Amino acid sequence: MKQTKIIGLVLFLSVIVILSGCTAPQKTQYNGSNQVKTLTEIPDNAKKLLGLDPMSNDTDGDGVDDLNDSTPTFADVPLQASTGPVGFRIQSILVENNYDEAAKQAAPDHLELVLQSTTGKDIGNLTVYYIITDAKINKTESYIKPLKGFVLKANEIRTIHFDAGQKPDHFRANPNSIYYTTKDELNFTVTINADGYEAQTIQVKKDAGGAESPD
Ligand SMILES: [Ca+2]
Ligand SMILES: [Ca+2]
């Protein structure tokens, strides 16, 4: 079944490459006088059609690169919840009607979480695991996002964002996710892990509405 899916994906990609006439990153091999080209990465325009992140070779963060992942927007091995005392809480979650406090204006819809430390120690090994479900088309995506370089300092309250990931405390989200491409109602479940501390989970619903643009 898995092999069939991979073969199907490779065939689909091959057709896209041929039709679009694009130049994919390629590895060139010589076989006598015949030049053989091998596809080594999924081209960006195909990634959009497939709902993948052009800035990542592993869109869902499960450790299997997109070309070899039969479920490239579904982390097949969910994050195992961390255990221990409570070191932080998820104070709130937003997936629509975001507001940029610094710019004093509305921000494009994105996943935004407010974290509150409840310990006197810094926590620097947080990983976010989030699931997006569209019940109408029966599609689920899930992503594993280690918060590289992020430290929740002792007793601090801090907001993190998943969008283009180009500012401090902003992390990369797949711009071709169902989050941005569907108008259906979506359900989000977010779990945050930190080694040595109890994992925290929060859920929220995004109302049906127009497709949103990532910022
Ligand atoms: Ca993957
Ligand atoms: Ca996967």
Q: What is the N-to-C succession of helices and strands? A: HEEHEEEEEEEEHEE
Rg, please?
A: 20 Å
Q: Briefly, what CATH class of the largest domain?
A: Mainly Beta
CATH topology of the largest domain: Immunoglobulin-like
Structural features, described:
It contains 3 helices and 12 strands; from the N terminus they run αββαββββββββαββ. By secondary structure, the protein is mostly beta strands. It folds into 2 domains: 2-50, no CATH class; 88-206, Immunoglobulin-like, CATH 2.60.40. The strands form 4 sheets. A 4-stranded mixed β-sheet has the order 3-6-9-10, with no helix packed on it. Strands 8-7-11-12 form a 4-stranded antiparallel β-sheet, with no helix packed on it. Strands 1-2 form a two-stranded antiparallel ribbon. A hairpin with a 2-residue loop joins β1 (26-31) and β2 (34-39). The protein is globular. Mean pLDDT is 86; it is low at 15-34. One calcium ion binds next to loops.
